[in-house]
């Protein structure tokens, strides 16, 4: 497999991170968004990040100049139809995504692979928006934030995704310093499913809104378990509302299986608008 | 199980059934006992055996030998002995069935086994995903390797205590439990 031309749709944090990473692999990248302002902001951020990497001697100025030449911001109707891979990284809204996939399917050439960076929707459900000919080339590619640093890419095989395509993408990412993991199209894929207990079990250990106890659980899991962050400080960083929403979505998808049930404290925190670091009120206080 | 005794102190290491652990406490009423209770609820033991002065969770230790310790009263002699034996003790005031780290990690391990059972991904890819997607120091199967008995015992204890089906062990991990 040789991926040379990449289109990334959505210039938010994930989309611009994914686009930056592909450009760093010396792929030709077109970053697309409906907002020109967002595109300019993303481009400035990526250029600034590359300039810093040159200062830190992680990249040479020659490499960065080449990456800058390979990287363009565009609107959808301006991008090359003959691209190898299109990655969708827009808002997590199934209907909006399906509408977009319908357009992408009609726009791009038959050989183009269409991928979603979704963390929550079934790939097979989204594939219903594309033509029967495209379904074998419709796949999930779930990157982790920050996409330029985190090595994992979950390669998700939908019901009709070609197995050979999954293997080829796995090998391609493996050859580019990523750590791909092949996942079935099941709720939460691998990480968002298995990681649920990193939050759920500590919540059941503390049971109540007890900051001292939470601090101790965080400390033990870092000191004894070797985790980089404790569950409570991590939930505060991710956003308690975001984490609660992912938990509920996985729980619903598994027919309210007890293993995935959210804890009452999560719901209470969201109701009290204690979302974490972003509004300075979470499991901890950030005054 | 292994017992280390010095002065009037007995430290009980290793895995044992709940009954075996209780036998040691019953048989040594005059000693100060510190016991590995990784798979059990220390509160239950403290309530019945006043000679139990502290508990610890060493069954999920890796080569770094970091161990979660709960003490009913400060004990320099016990902590010093643990250090002499190569352990790195981290004290906690939380008394929880399975302590903090083992209780959290067995649930992660159990879910990884459920995912494997449902063919979501291979062992290698599940370990890889957790290490490189969320920076876990080890993959769930790496953590579980050789410790299936402890995982199943702690899950069973948590289920007995809470009657919550979230603690039911996956078929795969039950199969991997070789007593």
Q: Going by CATH, what is the homologous superfamily of the largest domain in chain A?
A: NAD(P)-binding Rossmann-like Domain
Beta percentage of chain A is: 5-15%
Q: Order of strands in the sheet with the most strands of chain A?
A: 3-2-1-4-5-6-7-8
Helical fraction of chain A: 40-55%
Element-level helix/strand string of chain B: EEHEHEEHEHHHHH
N-C termini distance of chain B? 14 Å
Structural description of this entry:
- Chain A is 45% helix and 14% strand.
- Chain A has twelve helices and eight strands.
- Chain A has helices at 13-24, 36-55, 61-70, 94-107, 123-126, 163-174, 191-194, 196-206, 211-223, 231-238, 240-253, 264-271, and strands at residues 5-9, 28-32, 71-74, 85-88, 113-116, 138-143, 152-157, 179-184.
- An eight-stranded mixed sheet of chain A has the order 3-2-1-4-5-6-7-8, with helices on both faces.
- Chain A is globular.
- The relative contact order of chain A is 0.09.
- With 179 residues, chain B is an alpha/beta fold.
- Chain B has helices spanning 18-27, 42-48, 76-84, 101-117, 123-133, 140-144, 148-162, 171-176; strands spanning 2-6, 9-13, 32-36, 52-57, 66-71, 88-91.
- Chain B has a six-stranded mixed sheet, sandwiched between helices.
- In chain B, strand 3, helix 2 and strand 4 (52-57) form a beta-alpha-beta unit.
- In chain B, helix 4 (101-117) crosses helix 7.
- The two termini of chain B are 14 Å apart.
- The model of chain B has no long low-confidence stretch (mean pLDDT 95).
- Chain A binds chain B through residues 144, 150-152, 154, 179-184, 186, 189-191, 193-198, 200-202, 205, 213, 216-217, 219-221, 223-228, 231, 258-259, 261, and chain B through 64, 66-68, 90, 92-94, 96, 99-101, 103-105, 107-108, 110-112, 114-115, 118-122, 125-126, 128-138, 140, 164-166.
């Amino acid at each position: 497999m040789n991926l040379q031309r990449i289109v990334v749709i959505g210039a938010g944090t994930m989309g611009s991170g994914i686009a930056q990473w592909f450009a760093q692999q010396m792929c030709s990248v077109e970053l697309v968004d409906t907002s020109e302002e967002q595109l300019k902001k993303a481009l400035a951020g990526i250029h600034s990040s590359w300039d810093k990497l040159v200062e830190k001697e992680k990249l040479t100025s020659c490499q960065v100049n080449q990456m800058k030449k390979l990287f363009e911001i565009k609107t959808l109707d301006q991008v090359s139809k003959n691209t190898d891979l299109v990655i969708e990284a827009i808002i997590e809204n199934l209907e909006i995504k399906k509408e977009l996939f319908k357009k992408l399917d009609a726009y791009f050439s038959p050989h183009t692979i269409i991928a979603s960076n979704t963390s929550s929707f079934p790939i097979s459900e989204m594939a219903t928006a594309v033509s029967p000919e495209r379904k074998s080339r419709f796949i999930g590619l779930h990157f982790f934030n920050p996409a330029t640093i985190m090595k994992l890419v979950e390669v998700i095989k939908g019901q009709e995704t070609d197995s050979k395509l999954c293997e080829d993408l796995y090998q391609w990412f493996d050859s580019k310093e990523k750590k791909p993991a092949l996942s079935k199209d099941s709720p939460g894929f691998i990480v968002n499913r298995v990681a649920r207990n990193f939050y759920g079990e500590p919540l059941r250990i503390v049971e109540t809104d007890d900051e001292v106890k939470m601090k101790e659980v965080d400390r033990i899991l870092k000191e004894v378990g070797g985790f980089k962050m404790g569950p409570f400080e991590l939930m505060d960083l991710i956003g308690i509302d975001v984490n609660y929403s992912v938990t509920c979505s996985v729980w619903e998808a598994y027919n309210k299986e007890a293993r995935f049930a959210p804890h009452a404290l999560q719901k209470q925190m969201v109701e009290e608008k204690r979302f974490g670091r972003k509004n300075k009120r979470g499991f901890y206080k950030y005054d | 199980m292994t017992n280390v005794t010095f002065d009037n102190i007995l430290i009980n290491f290793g895995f044992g059934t709940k009954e075996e652990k209780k036998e040691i406490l019953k048989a040594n009423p005059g000693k100060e006992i510190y016991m590995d209770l990784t798979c059990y609820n220390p509160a239950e033991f403290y309530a019945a055996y006043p000679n139990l002065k502290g508990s610890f969770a060493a069954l999920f230790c890796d080569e770094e030998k970091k161990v979660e310790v709960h003490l009913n009263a400060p004990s320099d002699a016990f902590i010093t002995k643990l250090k002499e034996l190569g352990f790195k003790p981290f004290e906690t005031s939380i008394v929880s069935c399975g302590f903090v780290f083992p209780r959290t990690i067995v649930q992660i391990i159990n879910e990884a086994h459920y995912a494997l059972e449902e063919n979501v991904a291979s062992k290698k890819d599940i370990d890889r995903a957790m290490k490189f997607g969320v920076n876990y120091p080890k993959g769930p199967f790496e953590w579980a390797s050789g410790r299936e008995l402890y995982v199943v015992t702690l899950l069973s204890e948590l289920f007995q205590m809470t009657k919550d089906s979230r603690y039911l062990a996956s078929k795969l991990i039950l199969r991997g439990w070789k007593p």
